[in-house]
Design brief:
Layout (H helix, E strand, L loop, with lengths): L1 E5 L8 E5 L9 E4 L4 E6 L28 E4 L20 E6 L6 E7 L5 H6 L3 E7 L1 H4 L9 E11 L5 E2 L18 E4 L2 E2 L2 E4 L3 E8 L6 E5 L5 E6 L2 E9 L2 E3 L4 E7 L7 E6 L2 E8 L25 E14 L4 E6 L17 E8 L5 E5 L4 E9 L1 H7 L4 E6 L11 E4 L3 E8 L5 E7 L2 H5 L3 E6 L6
Parallel strand pairs: 3-8, 9-14, 13-21, 22-24
Antiparallel strand pairs: 1-2, 4-6, 5-7, 7-8, 9-10, 9-11, 11-12, 14-19, 15-18, 15-20, 16-17, 16-19, 20-21, 22-23, 24-29, 25-28, 25-30, 26-27, 26-29, 30-31
Bound molecules: CU-O-CU linkage (C2O) and copper (II) ion.
The site of copper (II) ion has 7 residues, from loops.
Amino acid sequence: MSEVLCKVHRDVPPTRFWGYGGSFPGPTIETRARQGIVVEWANQLPARHFLPIDHTLCGAGRDRPDVRAVVHVHGAKASPENDGYPEDWTTPGRSSLFHYPNQQDATALWYHDHAMGIERLNQYAGLLGVYLIRDAAEDALDLPRAPHELPLVLCDRLFGQDGQLRYSTSGAPDAPWISEITCDAHLVNGKLYPYLDVEPRRYRFRVVNASNSRFYDLSLSNGGTFHQIGTDQGLLPAPVALTALTLAPAERADLLVDFGAARGQKILLKSQSFELMQFRVGTLTGARATKLPTKLRPVRKIPESAAAKTRTLTLNEYHDPQTHRMLMLLNAKRWHEPVTEKPELDSVEIWKLMNLTEDSHPIHLHLVRFQILDRQLFDADEYNTSGKLELVRAPMPPPPNEAGWKDTVRVDPGTITRIIVKFEGYAGRYVWHCHLLEHAANEMMRPFEVVARRGT
Ligand code: C2O
Ligand code: CU
């Protein structure tokens, strides 16, 4: 981790970022399932932060060094010591060795900073990158490979006239935290409005939403159909045809886009009304075309009857009377309160995530993969005033493109989103949190602890 200067655009002077391996985004780490790797994460960042730290936030007090970093591989099944617990940060000049066993299916994970109280700033500064896992099941499919396969890391940023990063503040000098950051500059792989020369053939894009708080609604400017073949944690059972795709912060999508009929055209990748990048479709070279697979990888549904426990967990936003600002919590608990979620190792649980707020929150659990059971609307106003739970309409199963393995789930306002999770891999302390980084910083993040089964 070090300070790097990057050209985000031909017409913008070099921008200071913090990157891994001397780049922003960091280098794509490509691994094989069941072949572990060790990474030495060396903190060579400067001694001072260049973005506004809020020392009133949990874990970011003035007694802590300003510059602290710890890497989490998002979606990795890693032991607690190697997972990047938010309090396991190191300071400049130090490094840590982390072991990733890769005992999991092929997918696109991503790695990013997770230091308590400042991860929103560290990630915004550029500490993020893609981590691919490949395996034989994926190899056996006729999918496009490099150079017809590439990651697309999406994130938004604010730039000053000088080409340098800005991060919005509340205006209160001692408490600059803001509840969300929305930016007007859209970067793809660290570039502002880039273009990609493509051939009139099928491409595979490993899309990562690496924004602090932006949701993307992706579509192509020609209204074209594309196919989603994988979710956060791996391949779907079969490709799902889409013309639009919502991606919440931290979610990933494995997409196939066929430019075969678009020779000579320019096609934009868009989100809502703004442009992310342009594809310039040229002519075909010799390489063999790939076909759209009909089957990918079976996803065996975890039966609800397998669940040993069901937990109802609320998502809350309060006006904090002490600080006069918003406070976001999970199940009305602050970070430092005793651990309340202690699933047993290898047990299955259903988590009912009940959103009492007006925002959509992407909820992420470390260590595990899960399946979405359903989403059901309820009357949140009624619940907030009287405590009475009034369900509205029938629960909706996830759409086909979310009916795979997930590690981050969008919990929309006024819904109860049920997920089913098997807590396998390791016992020990992990975290679950909202992946709107400004929410996670104030304190929409909680520890959970996987406990070894009694008697073993
Ligand atoms: Cu993307 Cu706690 O992580
Ligand atoms: Cu949130």
